[in-house]
Amino acid sequence: MREEAEDHQLHGSDGGGDGPGDGGALDGAGGPADDGLRGRLVRVGVELVDAEGARALTLREIARRAGVSHGAPRRHFPTHLDLLSAIARRGFAELGARAAAEDRETAAPRERIALLARAYLDFAATRTGMYELMFRHDLLESGRLGLRETSLPLFAHLTGLVARVRPGADPVVITGTLWANLHGIAQLRHWGSLRLATGGDDPAPFLTAALDAHLGPAEPTR
Known about the structure:
Layout: H1 2-14, H2 36-52, H3 59-66, H4 80-102, H5 109-126, H6 128-134, H7 137-142, H8 147-165, H9 171-191, H10 193-198, H11 203-215
Helix pairs in contact: 2-3, 2-4, 2-6, 4-5, 4-6, 4-8, 5-6, 5-8, 5-9, 5-11, 8-9, 9-11
């Protein structure tokens, strides 16, 4: 009975869309589906991943913290991957917003790449649980809620800037290797391996070295 009451409350608040075929219900980062139980489950998941990491995101624990029966989430997220993907979409939305806030269109392309890279590393350091969730291969490969498409705009933007810095090179390959380098810095820093191997975990010198390796040395400032 409790689960039926929860479903009735959701249908009354967002027009009855509760399945993966409903365009509004697919929106894990705002919009009509952000009301009622569905939105509450996503918000609770975001809070949980920030507090305890990606491994804590079980359906049962999210339901418990949302104050609903453990079966209720499956009415709106048919699989665990659906719910995790909706939570991860919030992370990609925030990463995109941080990158947009740091980007300066009047700056030179190489400087803009550096700004975006710093924003990426800062996000990885301050939202470690969410960062881990966002790049789980099973989520990205599943294509749930269009998660792959959500993750691509920032990469495409970075690729465009790389093309301006390295004309004649394959910008997709250069951007991919730079991103892999950034991801490695972020992960090794989080695990503590960077400090063990190098004696420090300030990302600044590692970022400079990565940019120089993939884009060439920066022009000296006058």
